[in-house]
């Protein structure tokens, strides 16, 4: 929770802050991405009427496995943002619209966990790679080069039937 008490004492003034937020692991299409360190959010906030304006930068390392060779990969996430939070009176009834994402606060503290999590996850790469030219897994489970026995027609291989069909069509 970010303490915004200073914004009530100085409305309209940009107040600098540094905030640490622990992010939960994310399951992205079956791949687990972890955030081993707390996210650092640096920026400024200002309050004008019922709107809290927060702008800054979020940085956090993300860890996953390489999409080609399955080795561990650390990817630095760094994203700038500018968001507005609306003051919510706890006595007011609010309709829950599942299609509308509202950033709200009440009192003198703002919960930045949802914002930090969304910013970090949306900034993740589509595929984690240990290096751009990663060759992938070069040996099979037996230590053999998987390309060395490419011409075998092993039916236990997931693409064995497809390989047989392809070979048959080439022969015709």
The SSE order reads EHEEEEEEEEHH
Give the mean pLDDT: 82
Strand order of the biggest β-sheet: 2-5-6-7-8
Q: Which percent band covers the strand fraction?
A: 25-35%
Helix content: 10-25%
C-alpha geometry: elongated
What does this structure look like?
The protein has 3 helices and 9 strands, in the order βαββββββββαα. The chain has 172 residues and is of the alpha+beta class. A hairpin with a 2-residue loop joins strand 5 and strand 6. The mean pLDDT is 82.
Features:
172 residues, alpha+beta, 5-stranded mixed sheet, 3 helices
Q: Short description, anyone?
A:
This protein has 172 residues and is α+β, with helices and mostly antiparallel strands. It is built from three helices and nine strands; from the N terminus they run E-H-E-E-E-E-E-E-E-E-H-H. It has helices at 5-9, 113-122, 160-171; strands at 2-3, 15-21, 26-28, 31-33, 39-48, 51-65, 72-87, 104-105, 109-110.
Q: What is the topology?
A:
Blueprint: E1 2-3, H1 5-9, E2 15-21, E3 26-28, E4 31-33, E5 39-48, E6 51-65, E7 72-87, E8 104-105, E9 109-110, H2 113-122, H3 160-171
Parallel strand pairs: 7-8
Antiparallel strand pairs: 1-9, 2-5, 3-4, 5-6, 6-7
